[in-house]
Amino acid sequence: MLLPIEAYGSSALRKVGEEVPEDYPQLQELIDNMLETMYNAPGVGLAAPQLNLALRLFVIDSTQFYDEEDEEETEEKGLKEVFINPEIIEKYGEDTFYEEGCLSIPGIREQIVRPSQIHIQYYDRDFNFHDEQFEGLDARVIQHEYDHINGVLFTDHLKPIKKRTLQKSLNEISQGKVKVQYKMRFPKQQKKRV
User: Fold this and answer.
1) Predicted confidence band at 17 (pLDDT cuts at 50, 70, 90)?
2) Farthest-apart Cα atoms in the chain, separation
3) What amino acid positions are annotated as catalytic residues?
4) Where are the domains of the chain?
5) Which is it for the CA torsion 168, 169, 173, 178, positive or negative?
6) From CA 193, how far away is CA 178, in angstroms rounded?
7) Would you give the DSSP letter of residue 65?
8) Is beta strand 45-47 parallel, antiparallel or unpaired with respect to 129-135?
9) Continuous H helices in the chain
């Protein structure tokens, strides 16, 4: 089932996610709905807070960025995974810039600097424990989604002057003045006092 994605300005995007218990009701259905919603948008990651659920849960699929015939000298083929109760243990490596976007902030893409490698612990959809290291695009996507479960948006990484230049566009998104091809839920506009 396709779920509505919370738009910029929603208080749900600023909540820190709570741990997901292993017996969380209909967890597998939620994960399937998250994946379907992410692919429909289309996106490479989606976090529970973007669906108005304050949970430490996100899904990613970066495999679409890698072509089997790609001649680059890398073994990285992308990652399709569910992250439950993740904890980034360490961020390391070179700081790299990459243009990021977000399903909750449609139409805005900006260069964001992040460390190139991470060490993370998490549970997969079957609650199997993982202790892994990721690099490159996979590390970036994980960090972006990890920010979401901590109430952080990619625009929070921008310098204040850059964020000010985007403020009009961000306000328009929060007011629903944006066209998207997927379900979105926009913050309710507060009635102005007369």
Assistant:
1) very high
2) 64
3) 145
4) 5-185
5) positive
6) 25
7) G
8) unpaired
9) 27-40, 136-148, 160-174
User: Assign residue 151 a region: left if phi > 0, alpha if psi is -120 to 50, beta otherwise?
Assistant: left
Task: Count Cβ atoms below 10 Å from residue 154 Cβ, excluding itself.
Answer: 20
pLDDT for 77: 76
Picking from 7, 164, 137, 159, the residue whose alpha carbon sits closest to that of residue 78 is 137
CATH superfamily of domain region 5-185:
Peptide deformylase (3.90.45.10)
Helix, strand, coil abundance in the chain, percent, nearest 5 = 30, 30, 40
Task: Report the chain's mean pLDDT, rounded to a whole number.
Answer: 92
pLDDT tens by residue, 93-136:
999 999 999 999 999 999 999 999 999 999 999 999 999 999 99
DSSP state of 106: E
